Amino acid sequence: MNSLGPEATVGTWITQLEPAPPAALLQRLQELLANEVNRPAREVPEVCLAAGERLLDALLQSGSTSRATALDLLAVDALVTYAFEAAADDPTHIVERATSAMQRIAALPGALSREASQPPAAVP
């Protein structure tokens, strides 16, 4: 993330992943992050984690964990993985970020709809 420069965005970060994800997965990630692409790249950890949480919450609430939703399940995995890949640039907060992520994900399904009026706490 550091090599992208100060003007980098979430959108540029995703499109410059190395190795690049398969085309179908990259397209799905771009769809899931469409409203966030202009945010600064330094926000990638929280943006990806929040997007992964929202998708996982929706899948769990709908019971959609079948083969038909495989791409979405892969997208959840990729988003959480990329959140921590980006967060590795700031290792001093990795433990707090991981603890927060585990608690947030463990509270699914339904936690996001119960807390819709409260955004997830960001880890520095």
Keywords, please?
124 residues; mainly alpha; globular
Secondary structure: elements and pairs:
Layout (H helix, E strand, L loop, with lengths): L9 H6 L7 H10 L11 H19 L7 H18 L6 H13 L4 H4 L10
Helix pairs in contact: 2-4, 3-4
What features would you describe in this structure?
This protein is mostly helical and 124 residues long. 56% of the residues lie in helices and 0% in strands. It contains six helices and no strands. It has helices at 10-15, 23-32, 44-62, 70-87, 94-106, 111-114. 24% of the residues are buried. The mean pLDDT is 87.
Query: How helix-rich are the residues, as a percent range?
Result: 55-70%
What's the end-to-end separation, in Å? 16 Å
The stretches of 5 or more residues where confidence is low (pLDDT under 50) are none
Note the beta-strand portion. Answer: under 5%
Instruction: Please work out how many helical segments DSSP would assign.
Output: 6
User: Radius of gyration over alpha carbons?
Assistant: 14 Å
Biggest beta sheet summary: none
What is the strand tally? 0
Class derived from helix and strand content: mainly alpha
Task: Write down the overall mean pLDDT.
Answer: 87
Shape: globular
What is the element string, with H for helices and E for strands?
A: HHHHHH
Structure at a glance:
With 124 residues, this protein is mostly helical. It contains 6 helices and no strands.
